[in-house]
């Protein structure tokens, strides 16, 4: 559904995005995460056709980014909600429906359905008089007014209270379940972890890791084993009448079992703990920062497709 | 651009802004417009704005044949005929003898009296039962372009008449042999009087000297007084009364535009602040659809204002033109105001800066449009402004297609250029950045530059702006220059033109260097400079061809003064004269380009050198030819 090849964007000679290559399948939820200034928003805007890449190409639903037909099939939600605050939610949404050539009766029905699903109250209020959460819901409704195949959401829950945030994340999950292709960016990695099929981690303008959560964990995460023994073993701590030793490999688990046996005890439990996406991200980001700029350039040139 | 999309965006622009005005504000604005709308026709119905009522004091006895003339004209205040001339009265009339005070106001009062006598005569004659006798001859007036200007009211000493006022017409009018009524000591310099003298009712002449008090008497008085009723010259030559009618008409037409651009600039800038326009850029519409759609309501609104004003004036003022030319001429002016505001809104970073920009636009464009139009009846230079066409049409003066073109084409092209440059910035990467205005200007130019040859095209695109700037510069320098020695004022005009041309040639190339479109090598700079010079040459000569084919008047010739002579020369000389400007433009543009490689200071040095070379060339050519 989305193909990005060697995307590069420079601002005044400074590279904001360097050679990103990835693809997103139809119906997939693809997350892009990274620290501030990593190039996430620039990448999303290039996908939406808002920013012209310095080099490289993007196609969405078979159309080049920026083409009119591609825009018809796209719903874009920027990080902020830049709305026309003099309008009411209803007139604002009808305006955009008009721009997308949505017939009036279809638009009216779609507006009613979407605003009901989003549980937006006070629809006749001017947008300027609405709360931030209400404005965000209007912005999301706008991104759906043309019933797009592809949604590009940049920080959809940014700056919202936990209740509204959960509501919006759940709504996004629901859209994914309906078969929409979604490219999703967020700082809250728990949200990304909960709804994304695959994730790309960006740092310094390039994609430094990508794959589904298992792959990322395997490549960049850590698995630790908490071994519970009935007797004290080296490096163990006493907890609830047992001695717990945390190790990072099965060999160390075996060594712990032997140590417990020699001490006349036994292993009663082994618990496995895998890294969260946040820990994977921190590992990748730390590792990436410690590398030289030239190394990253070399990686980008030989970067593999996601 | 797709008209359907443009109309939709335009409709929603109105809806959006309507949502921003509460009912109370709308009611207050509506009531104010209603009051103003009612007041204008009332003022016009009462004879318009009579700012000059009772302006001149005239000492005249009731038994004088000129008494009814003075009494009927509100410009005059009747005083005792024995009052002291100069301190108490401006004109003293003894029978048919008119003496003006030796002041500028006295001369102006005399000129006003001439016009009043003419009008009075017409009214008296129109009241005669036998119209054939009243108007025995039908005369068709054909005004020819004069190839020299003559200052009005420059003759005479303001004392007693010499009886030869109208007689001066002999050199042109010929038929006016009865003008010598001895009523005035002024009457212009004779040649001027001839024009009018030849057209007034000579049949009534002669008798006037006797002061018989009949209509015929007044007719002869008129001839004497109206030694000149056609004023030509420069604004500095004008004596009171000031051309109030032109002033008010020009004012009426230009004022609404200043209000419209405030709203328009505000809506355009608000698209940029807080990234509100970002979502429109993602929608399946082009940036031109958005710009045209958002501009359309303001254009139509301004045209409705202007049309209403023209309609009201035409309905209430018999003898006005149809108003069609006026409306046509207003179109490029409205577009120019909107385009300049649009470009300004693309440059401004905040509403504070937008205020500065719109005030600059208001002052600049109002000056450009309004000031020349005041002098509609005075000098052909007034044609630089489309409002001159408006005023002339409202006054019922015939308008030639060429005059229409001179007044409207440059602002139309300039408006187009502003929209094109502004549209270059109407994209995500430029709309929402906070760069300074000079950098935004360079961004807008760089947006059109992809490769070396692009610079030539951008220079060509800038040509309407160059012409407009040169016309304004000529119009601004011309009145001042009349008081200076010939070489000095010529040099002043040439310098203004050279500076404008060199900046226009070099700025696109500089934008290219600033945006790293070109290598900063001497070879690259020379190539870019040569292309810029070539582009300017092509545009300039294209304009010259239009000038030659169209036979534009001197005001346009002044703008392309560096083009050189075109007639009475051998083909070889013509070829040299054709190619010499090409070499000049290439050399000067390359000089600027070489300097700009090293940055802003280098650009300043290169530009100064280019201006110096260009000025010396132009001055030498003009001094050789003129």
From TrEMBL, chain A:
Segments crossing the lipid bilayer: none
Keyword ATP-binding: yes
GO molecular function per UniProt: ATP binding; ATP hydrolysis activity
Matches recorded under CDD domains: ABC_DR_subfamily_A (cd03230)
Keywords annotated in UniProt: ATP-binding, Nucleotide-binding, Transport
Gene3D superfamilies to which the protein is assigned, alphabetical: P-loop containing nucleotide triphosphate hydrolases
Protein known as: ABC transporter ATP-binding protein
Pfam family, one: ABC_tran
Domain named ABC transporter: residues: 2-229
Domain of life: Archaea
InterPro entries: AAA+_ATPase, ABC_transporter-like_ATP-bd, ABC_transporter-like_CS, ABC_transporter_ATP-binding, P-loop_NTPase
Organism (species): Halapricum hydrolyticum
Regions of compositional bias (Basic and acidic residues) in chain numbering: 286-299
Keyword Magnesium: no
Automatic annotation (TrEMBL), chain B:
UniProt superkingdom: Archaea
Keyword Nucleotide-binding: no
This protein's UniProt keywords: Membrane, Transmembrane, Transmembrane helix
Positions of the UniProt region annotated as Disordered: 149-226
Feature: compositional bias, Gly residues: 155-216
Ranges that cross the membrane: 244-265, 296-316, 322-347, 354-375, 404-426, 455-476, 488-504, 525-549, 569-590, 602-625
Signal peptide, first to last residue: none
Protein name: ABC transporter permease subunit
Native organism: Halapricum hydrolyticum
Top-level taxonomy: Archaea, Methanobacteriati, Methanobacteriota, Stenosarchaea group, Halobacteria
């Amino acid at each position: 559904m989305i193909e990005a090849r060697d995307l590069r964007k420079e601002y005044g000679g400074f590279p904001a995005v360097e050679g990103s290559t990835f693809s997103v399948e139809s119906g997939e939820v693809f997350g892009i995460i990274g620290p501030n200034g990593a190039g996430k928003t620039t990448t999303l805007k290039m996908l939406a056709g808002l920013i012209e890449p310095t080099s490289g190409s993007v196609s969405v639903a078979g159309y080049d980014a920026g083409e009119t037909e591609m825009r018809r099939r796209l719903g874009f939600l920027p990080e902020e909600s830049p709305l026309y605050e003099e309008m009411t939610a209803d007139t604002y949404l009808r305006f955009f429906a008009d721009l997308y050539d949505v017939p009036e009766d279809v638009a009216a029905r779609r507006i009613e359905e979407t605003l009901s699903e989003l549980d937006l109250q006070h629809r006749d209020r001017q947008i300027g008089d609405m709360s931030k959460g209400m404005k965000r819901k209007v912005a999301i409704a706008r991104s759906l007014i043309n019933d797009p195949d592809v949604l590009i959401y940049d920080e959809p829950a940014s700056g919202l209270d936990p209740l509204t945030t959960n509501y919006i994340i759940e709504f996004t999950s629901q859209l994914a379940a309906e078969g929409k292709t979604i490219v999703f960016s967020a700082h809250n990695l728990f949200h990304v972890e909960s709804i994304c099929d695959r994730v790309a981690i960006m740092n310094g303008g390039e994609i430094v890791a990508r794959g589904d959560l298992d792959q990322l964990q395997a490549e960049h995460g850590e698995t630790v084993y908490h071994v519970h023994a009935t007797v004290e073993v080296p490096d163990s701590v006493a907890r609830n009448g047992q001695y717990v030793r945390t190790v990072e490999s099965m060999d160390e688990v075996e060594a712990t079992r032997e140590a417990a046996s020699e001490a006349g005890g036994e292993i009663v439990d082994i618990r496995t703990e895998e890294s969260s996406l946040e820990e994977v991200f921190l590992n990748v980001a730390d590792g990436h920062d410690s590398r030289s700029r030239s190394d990253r350039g070399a990686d980008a040139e030989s970067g593999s497709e996601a | 651009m797709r008209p359907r999309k443009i109309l939709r965006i335009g409709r929603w622009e109105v809806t959006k802004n309507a949502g921003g005005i509460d009912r109370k504000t709308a009611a207050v604005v509506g009531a104010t417009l209603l009051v103003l709308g009612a007041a204008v026709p009332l003022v016009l119905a009462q004879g318009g704005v009579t700012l000059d009522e009772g302006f001149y004091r005239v000492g005249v006895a009731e038994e004088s044949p000129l008494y009814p003339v003075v009494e009927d004209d509100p410009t005059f205040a009747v005083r005792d005929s024995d009052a002291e001339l100069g301190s108490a009265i401006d004109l003293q009339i003894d029978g048919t003898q008119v003496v003006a005070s030796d002041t500028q106001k006295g001369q102006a009062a005399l000129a006003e009296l001439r016009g009043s006598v003419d009008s009075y005569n017409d009214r008296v004659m129109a009241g005669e039962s036998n119209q054939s006798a009243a108007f025995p001859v039908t005369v068709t007036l054909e005004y020819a372009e004069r190839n020299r200007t003559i200052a009005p009211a420059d003759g005479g000493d303001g004392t007693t008449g010499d009886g030869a006022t109208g007689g001066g017409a002999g050199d042109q009018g010929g038929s006016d042999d009865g003008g010598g009524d001895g009523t005035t000591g002024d009457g212009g310099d004779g040649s001027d009087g001839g024009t009018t003298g030849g057209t007034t009712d000579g049949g009534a002449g002669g008798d006037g000297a006797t002061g018989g008090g009949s209509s015929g008497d007044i007719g002869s008085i008129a001839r004497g007084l109206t030694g000149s009723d056609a004023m030509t010259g420069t604004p500095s030559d004008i004596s009171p009364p000031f051309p109030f009618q032109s002033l008010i008409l020009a004012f009426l037409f230009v004022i609404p535009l200043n209000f419209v651009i405030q709203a328009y600039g505000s809506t355009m800038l608000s698209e940029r602040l807080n990234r509100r326009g970002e979502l429109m850029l993602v929608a399946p519409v082009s940036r031109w659809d958005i710009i045209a759609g958002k501009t359309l309501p303001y254009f139509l609104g301004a045209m409705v204002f202007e049309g209403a004003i023209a309609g009201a004036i035409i309905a209430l003022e018999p003898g006005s033109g149809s108003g069609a030319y006026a409306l046509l001429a207003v179109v490029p002016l409205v577009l120019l105001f909107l385009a300049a505001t649009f470009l300004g809104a693309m440059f401004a970073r905040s509403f504070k800066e937008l205020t500065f920009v719109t005030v600059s636009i208001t002052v600049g464009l109002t000056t450009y449009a309004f000031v020349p139009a005041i002098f509609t009846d005075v000098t052909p230079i007034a044609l630089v402004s489309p409002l001159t066409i408006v005023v002339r049409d409202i006054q019922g003066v015939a308008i030639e297609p060429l005059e229409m073109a001179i007044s409207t084409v440059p602002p139309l092209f300039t408006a187009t250029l502003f929209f094109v440059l502004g549209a270059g910035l109407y994209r995500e990467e430029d709309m929402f950045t906070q760069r300074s205005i000079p950098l935004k200007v360079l961004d807008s130019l760089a947006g059109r530059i992809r490769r070396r040859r692009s610079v030539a095209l951008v220079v060509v695109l800038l040509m309407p702006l160059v012409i407009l700037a040169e016309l304004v510069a000529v119009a601004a320098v011309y009145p001042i220059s009349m008081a200076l020695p010939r070489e000095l004022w010529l040099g002043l005009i040439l310098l203004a033109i050279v500076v404008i041309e060199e900046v226009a040639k070099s700025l696109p190339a500089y934008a290219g260097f600033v945006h790293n479109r070109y290598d900063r090598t001497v070879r690259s700079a020379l190539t870019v400079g040569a292309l810029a010079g070539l582009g300017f040459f092509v545009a300039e000569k294209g304009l010259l061809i239009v000038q030659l084919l169209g036979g534009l008047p001197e005001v346009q010739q002044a703008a392309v003064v560096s083009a050189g002579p075109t007639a009475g020369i051998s083909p070889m000389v013509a070829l040299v004269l054709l190619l010499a400007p090409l070499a000049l433009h290439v050399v000067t543009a390359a000089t600027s380009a070489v300097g700009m490689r090293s940055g802003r200071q280098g650009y300043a040095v290169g530009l100064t050198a280019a201006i110096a070379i260009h000025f010396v060339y132009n001055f030498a050519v003009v001094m050789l030819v003129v």
